[in-house]
């Protein structure tokens, strides 16, 4: 289930975001968290099942575009379709907008879209 980020989840959100190659540097990670906390156009969501196991962050852009900036799943829960579920939940949340990937998550996004098309065709 997708839940909006709250300050109480800061440590777990930072831990999950730190798995992204662009967020390995602590100063960069702290800046990213500040952006999500202070810029209303940047929204961070957590994926919660029994525990929080994933994070997805979006930027609300002009002209009805929502760009996914970050997506990460706890390594012990990878290859379970969690990333795809998070992307689909964001698409549902912003169904009146066009959801696109940032450059750094584009290949994962396209893989999820490709798998979704294959599923619909079968």
UniProtKB/TrEMBL annotation:
Keywords of the record: Acyltransferase, Transferase
EC number: 2.3.1.-
PANTHER family: PEPTIDYL-LYSINE N-ACETYLTRANSFERASE YJAB
InterPro entries in UniProt: Acyl_CoA_acyltransferase, GNAT_dom
Gene Ontology terms for molecular function: acyltransferase activity
Protein name according to UniProt: GNAT family N-acetyltransferase
Source domain of life: Bacteria
All residue ranges annotated as the N-acetyltransferase domain in the record: 3-122
Catalytic class of the enzyme: transferase
